[in-house]
Amino acid sequence: MFDIDRWNEIWNALAKNKVRSLLTAFGVFWGIFMLIVMAGSGKGLQNGVSEGIAKFAANSAFFWAEQTSEPFKGFKRGRYWHMDSEDLQFLKDKVPEIEYITPKNFTGRFGNSSNVIRGKKNGSFNVKGDYPDYIKIDPVTILKGRWINDLDIRDKRKVCVIGEKVFESLFDPKENPLGQYLKISGVYYQVVGLIRAETQININGRTEESVSLPFTTMLQTYNMGNQVHFLAITAKQGIPVSVVEDKVKELIKKKHSIAPTDVQALNSVNIEKEFKQMSGLFLGIQILTWIVGIGTLMAGVIGVSNIMLVIIKERTKEIGVQRAIGATPRVIIGQIMLESVVLTTVAGYIGLSLGVGLLELVNRIIESSPQPPGERAFFTHPEISLTVALSALAVLIVAGLFAGMIPASRAIQIKPIDALREE
Amino acid sequence: MIQISNLHKSYVMGNNSLHVLKGMDLQIEEGEFVSIMGSSGSGKSTLLNILGILDDYDQGTYYLGGKLIQGLNETRAAMTRNEMIGFIFQSFNLISFKNAAENVALPLYYQKVSRKKRNLIALEYLDRLGLKEWAHHLPSELSGGQKQRVAIARALISQPKIILADEPTGALDSTTSFEVMDILKEINDQGKTVIIVTHEHDIAAMTKKIIRLKDGVIEEVIKNGELQLFKDRVRTE
To answer: How much is the mean pLDDT over chain B?
Structure first.
């Protein structure tokens, strides 16, 4: 197999018939090229999306109140209710699996009317009431100053942390926002921090366009009593969020006189489940990619086989001569199979290289294009792992063998006499 | 060298069976220069194919160089051909994308002779046939006579016991035909057994023995001394 003469034979046979070889090779080239580009793009999409959510605590769940859907304990259905601050401690005590539990409240954002004012500048932003622990669930980068702390909560300080977009529209780029005051829905707050979101998961509006107040400050200032609009909970390491989710729902429903069978009253999102669904989606994309890619590749290989068959027909005489002067069937089979393998492998390798090259080019373009701060492309690092590339190459070689098999057996069936006396 | 007795061969085509060789007996000694003649359908091509181990036969025996040639599988047949028989064809059958030297060296390739060595031997043979300058030309760049000489060199390179030539001059004009025949004669003079199939009387007349076939059996054998007679007879026919 590795003697130079045989390679010379093959090289001669292929090189002396360039057009034919090229046409044959193109199908395989295209198949592997498509496979690589599609698989790489799928991976790029996956990378983009998972980078956007990767830092978000995957073991978290969120809860918010809706109208009840069933009558219970004398209450009619369609009742408005809300969670309250007492629920926090209550849940912490009753559900030991909880690691962090933080409430989050919102003030209304009425259309385009400006709710945040600084001097002559103003803007319409999301105003949220937050707890110090919240950034352990949804991490942020602190660009300047600090996040809300326990003293802010205890003393109900009138301070705020602003997102990057808020800074851009209310401050000059070179200004230091720390220590400055913003008037939010009629009340002044001092800016103590500037943050950038690390994830693409946004709760009630994007973090860049949000102003966070201490939770307790918000309750008092905007007369919310002890209402809690939104509850974020993470489970302790190794405990599935769904366990916590079910427990919390049961306890809260019981405490607020809601029918245990009421599925609407306490709504929730389980991030773990969402993640799982997402990975399922990507798995689906991958499988699809391979099915389509392998299909295209198969078409290419069948093309090779087909053209090789035609070639055999064309080379009947040549093969007949070779056999007459002493080529054994093994030599002929070996020659044709190897020709086929060389053709598919070389074509495949070129397709592989160009495919990877294209992905790399796309990657460069994405990376060099300017992006707004805090925003990420949903398509990054399209790539092909070495394993995939190598297995594709292996598939090619095997495919080449298969492609050569039928033509080779056809060549063997040629009788030297028939080949030589075709007139 | 060749011993054939009671050889039968028939071709089956659908329901019809065509009995081509009907119990042929033939003996060719080493160093003979024989031509096989006969009208089409007389079985000369079939005989040649069997002689060349390109086809099998149904009945009888065929000894080549003392070895029984019967029911060989393709691999054995190919090896025996490579070792014992040199083929020369009417349409030369050179491989079009190989140059003259590579074509000549091909039988040695199947004997797994190293590239360097076989190319050297090929050049030597081409030189003998006066084609050294043409060694690196493709067949398409050679004349008919040159092509046939390349084919002869290819037939000789594996030093076979017999040379089988199927209408070697069929595609050549008379001048080159005679050149080719001279070469074959020279080869014969060096002791090789040469068997040619032809339907041209003047070509057959240049050999030392003519075997005329008719309807699958040998009609007559004309030996060396009787050739003049044969020529005269042909002229009057």
So the answer is: 87
